[in-house]
Amino acid sequence: MTELHEGVCGTHSGAGTMVAKVLQAGYYWPTVQGDCTEYVQKCLKCQEFDTLSHQKPENLHYILSP
Question: Which of 9, 18, 57, 65 could pair with 36 in a Cys bridge, judged by C-beta atoms 3.0 to 4.6 Å apart?
Answer without folding.
Answer: 18
